[in-house]
Predict the 3D structure of the following.
Amino acid sequence: MTTEAHTESTEATAPTGVTLTDVAAVKVKALIEQEGRDDLRLRIAVQPGGCSGLRYQLFFDERSLDGDVVNDFGGVEVVVDRMSAPYLAGATIDFADRIDAQGFTIDNPNAQNSCACGDSFH
């Protein structure tokens, strides 16, 4: 008699990459269309700066850098360079268009603290 052992892993895997909400993807797609170029992608980077030590940068980019992490969200490519990827793992990018807030927001589980103005984190 043979028995087959089946083990199931219960370890949670760490989130990788950045998530772009549907609302943010629609806004990014509209902004790229306004630029009139089909070679642009949304690049998200973490740079030194701000009163808390690190600052987000979101911009359109046509470049491909060695080690880039690329994810597609409804036809919108989101690119993160290899140095910024660990700081942004699991982050969610959304777009708010309300009377009290307008623009892209980043919910980052890796940000321990942020400054009062919300412009930088560490």
Q: What stands out?
A: Residues 21 and 35 are 21 Å apart (CA to CA).
